[in-house]
Amino acid sequence: xxxxxxxxxxxxxxxxxxxxxxxxxxxxxxxxxxxxxxxxxxxxxxxxxxxxxxxxxxxxxxxxxxxxxxxxxxxxxxxxxxxxxxxxxxxxxxxxxxxxxxxxx
Length: 105
Description:
By secondary structure, the chain is of the alpha/beta class. 37% of the residues lie in helices and 26% in strands.
């Protein structure tokens, strides 16, 4: 299951040795609901290798502002604490899997 990421636990997760994938979403966002199940599948598929979670933009304005999230869904990909990739808008599982795999290489 995808981790619930908040303003208060984000920096700790970012400092982990594991790559981090954050899905910025909101309950009222239609495309966010479309990719929600894909994020859950990826979280399950990579649970031992990558931390994958969801951040509700309505409840977590600090991190949302820090990374300039203006459109949702936006998925950010971090490796060694650095932002290395981004997906804005809905995407197929195959495209997101490639981005997650790139974090592991």
